[in-house]
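dumping this here before i forget
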Amino acid sequence: MTAEEGAVRVEDLPGGIRVVTLDRPASRNALTPVLLSGLDRALRPEPSVRALVLEGEGTAFSSGYDLACLEADAAAGRAPDERIQEVLRLLEEHPAPSIAVVQGAAFGAGCELACAADLRVAGPDAVFCLPPLKLGIIYAPDGLWRLARLVGWQRAREMVLTGRTVNAEQAQGWGLADRLELDPVAAGRVLAEELARAAPLAVAGTRVLFRRLGRAPLTEAERAELELLRARAFASADGAEGRAAARERRRPRFQGR
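structure:
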């Protein structure tokens, strides 16, 4: 593992609190296969873990999935979604409650990672965004659902169709951030201490209850239809143009093919 690839740091604090930190600050903690594997290991259930805190090193929580990795995935004719969703489900299905401490950018898969946590504590500089249409891709249905369950379908529709950013104050008003704090790291850990004091079996069962009550799953036929649409968009010329424009920091020139 190199410094460029980054790492996931794990710190187990007293009281059963596990702090999981994305440590790739030079790339604003952009997710890579290496970081996803680190999250996979860190989020495996352990009886001693009573609360999880997710943090990002440096100035961003996570700027999303790394564009260079996305280009390699496109060249290989694959999408990273399956692996990303596996890791996010580990977070959602972990017996312990989780808190995302969001400072700076939470974009794309980074925004979805924050949405997969039970609670979000944001700093004043927090910015949330799901910009898939600017990359010429259709976002994963599970990711869109994670956003919509927090902000509602109409605001989710606005965020995705426009690619707009949502600042910390807006995020709190929309339900995307549960708390807005000047020192979100300290506030997140205090909140984790509170969560960790609850009865573990009751907490785990209650989290299952929320998941069951809050989800209307797609049928297999609907999921297959959506995956076909997503695969076509990802492999299209517009998809390649969107990724190139993002790398070159210019406005994409989409042609509908």
